[in-house]
Amino acid sequence: MGKLRPGPHPLRNLLLLLWTLLNCSFGGSAQGSGEWTLWGSWSPCSSSCGRGLSVRSRRCIRFPREELCWGNTHEYRLCQLPDCPPGAVLFRDLQCSLYNGHPVLGPQKTYQWVPFYGAPNQCDLNCLAVGHAFYHSFGRVLDGTPCSPGSQGLCVAGRCLSAGCDGLMGSDAREDHCGRCGGANDSCLLVQRVFRDAGAFAGYWNVTLIPEGARHIRAAHRSRNHLALMVSDGSYVLNGNWAVSPPGTYEAAGTRVVYTRATGSEETLHAAGPTSQDLLLQVLLQEPNPGIEFEFWLPRERYGPFQEQAQALSWSLRQPQPREVEPQPPETPVSPAAIPPRTLTPSPDPCPPCPDTRGRAHRLLHYCGSDFVFRARVLGRLYRAQETRYEVRVQLIYKNLSPLRALEYVWAPGRCPCPLLALHREYLLAARRLVSSDGTQDRLLLPDAGYARPWSPAEDSRVRLAARHCPV
Q1: Long-range contacts, stretch 17-22, CB < 8 angstroms, 24+ apart
Q2: In terms of Cα–Cα distance, which of 16, 78, 69, 76 is closest to 50?
Q3: H/E segment holding residue 8
Q4: Which residues pair with 231 in a beta bridge?
Q5: What is the C-alpha to C-alpha distance for residues 39 and 457, in angstroms, rounded to an integer?
Q6: Burial of 358 (0-12, 13-18, 19+ CB in 10 A)
């Protein structure tokens, strides 16, 4: 009688099935990308004082024929320690001094070395031979070396990077107008008005209260009058007591106030904020007031008290209520006396749907016919007459006729441009350069029904492929 043969082991069947799927699916081609391990712990700071770097890493786990993982194996963040003591040796100086007295350019010659900042790559260890008119590059500086004296950037793997508001080097995370890192301007309101009271006599007139916590303060006018700024104790910061202050930067309420006065009677006042106490903006009238524009961003919870203070001081509330940004916030209850009468106007027609602009032919047409192709993040949107202006942060350049700045304006025709770009999203854009006939305007134009696709790794691959098919 023969022996009973054991049945197949369940684990063996599972492994066989996985192997079959890996080798047979899609005709044996790549099976997607691998997967990252969890991030490791952050390393100690690269510096013992001042600014330095911490680093953490991860590994890509993949099966045979799988693509590499998308992303970086290392991540760097800024670490801020107490300032270095006076007279401490700078990090770059220390790296150059390591070569003092060692033969570098020959077996006999030795030199003393100090940093040289005139070379093209500021993240190379370029050192000047003391007493000689030449410098030598010793390769890359160590990670965490300042790019240049006084610079906020640090060198990471040979590149000069700055930290985002999240502390990560090279991050594009920025504070929104409310002061939140990576926020969408939804925790504050934009108070934006025009003070038009003419004034019955020359002297100081109240324009607006600027409450504690205000950010991105701006005021401007064009006349022989002067803006005046008063702190809560009644003392003047600018243009008080009938004396005109010189243009410059002033400290007030925990922020810096930049005051400018141009030759064409234009006067401006800017402050980043946030303010640590209330400020009072006034105007010293010497001639009829043509209008003073002012704006500031205010936390939502401070808008109600601001309105009550303005009413208590009997200031005019005839100006429009604060303009808000997307997304729309809940309405703030306002007393009936403060609401101005309004004339109802029909709401404008909604924007019609945009035509379908997908496809390889459309991508080739606009990539090859454009002057600029780049990846950008939309920071702001402004409607001007029959145009829409986008403020964008350029992330990656694929094609450029001339240099692009980190921050650019991109113009699109109409108040309903196609395609319509969403705030705080990244796109691949193909734009043209438009220079006016008199040479006074040089713009980046996004044509109607042009190429603006949400950025993704797949879209990145498609646009790189399109570049190979453009006629030379």
Answers
A1: 22/63, 22/64, 22/65
A2: 78
A3: none
A4: 279
A5: 22
A6: exposed
Mean pLDDT by 10 residues, the chain (472 residues): 46 51 47 82 90 92 83 90 87 93 81 91 93 91 90 90 89 87 87 80 85 94 92 89 91 93 85 92 88 92 82 46 37 38 41 73 82 92 82 90 85 84 90 77 84 87 83 61
Q: Annotate 228-241 with DSSP letters as a single string.
A: EEEETTS-EEES-T
Residue 367, SS3? helix
Beta bridge pairs of residue 188:
299
pLDDT tens readout for residues 380-405: 888 876 788 899 999 899 888 888 88
Burial of 133 (0-12, 13-18, 19+ CB in 10 A): exposed
Q: pLDDT digit string (tens) for 250-266?
A: 999 999 999 998 876 88
Q: Alpha-carbon torsion 334, 336, 342, 344, what sign? A: positive
The DSSP string of 149-175 is TT-S-EEETTEEE-B-TTSBBT----B
